[in-house]
Design brief:
binds iron/sulfur cluster; globular; about 350 residues; four-stranded mixed β-sheet; alpha+beta; 13 strands
Length: about 350
Amino acid sequence: MSDDNKPRSPIESGCPDGFQYMHPVMRKNYGAWKFHEHPKPGVLRHVGYSGDEIWTVRCGTQRILDVFTLRELCDIGDEYADGYIHFTIRSNVEYMVSDPAKVEPLIKAITDAGYIVGGTKNSVTMLSHTQGWLHCDIPGTDASGVVKSMMDELIDEFRNCNMPNRVHITTSCCQINCGGQGDIAINVQHTKPPKINHDLVSNVCERPSVVARCPVAAIRPAMVNGKPSLEVDEKKCICCGACFPPCPPMQINDAEHSKLAVWVGGNHSNARSKPTFQKLVAAGIPNNPPRWPEATAIVKNILKAYKEDAKDWERINDWIERIGWPRFFEVTNLPFTKYHIDNWRGARNSLNASTHIRF
Ligand code: SF4
Ligand code: SF4
């Protein structure tokens, strides 16, 4: 067999070793930092036991970067920093320099190019960003557009550190997959069960996997017009949209009935307090591109109340825990409606329906 006909060996495409891309001072002092401080918004200074120090300048990006923007950001890194960049999980790009004299020229180059420096410490850092209409096949709303229009309004909260503690905001453009868990989350909310195109189901969908996919067992196989199809028990359906990805003929996205909802108080980390689930605080918000003004107004309103009322270092979940949910709805002027109560017929396990004390 000639070389050309040999099966090619698999290409490892997992995450590459990050150390090779790290600034040499970071690499040298890995795990041996003495302290770090925050000289000003968007700038961090780390000092190692070795006496080395490194300055990090953080700059916001829109995450979905075209190649020209990416080149421009890299050119700034080559010219004004030490040639190393690092992207944070919230799409901020960080430049590192070991010489403090380079910090101000670097900040000037970033701002002159039209980017913003900030996102550190007790600021509102960049919204975490799902794929939305640009890449994904199931979104009910966009992500880039929501992030852009909200961050345009929150730019001063990114540039400054005026919040009681750090604020993580997230988006989720479907109800089931990535994103959607943060101090404040803007998530899609479907309000109607899927509409089934029975002519297509038998050709497009693997029916047992679709049935298995439903978290509340609302889907069952059915024969419709002599063809194998599916049916949904609409009383059981929680309108989650989990059946739509494996079976596109079960269309759930709807211009009128797919809404946005805002949830607050989610915290993944257990570094300083226990992780918490977020809770719904605003439902049925219009999914209104290209600027989503209604959702943005609610987020700004929550941030304003948090900024005025929380104590230093309280995250949003800590603040609500202290003041209680009734007070949260008072200070944010958000209406508490029937949609905030879990009245789904299968919710016996989650409703506190007995007099037993639960821990
Ligand atoms: S949140 Fe859902 S729709 Fe949005 S990118 Fe993730 S999987 Fe796709
Ligand atoms: S939308 Fe969710 S709950 Fe409703 S049928 Fe589909 S998978 Fe089941």
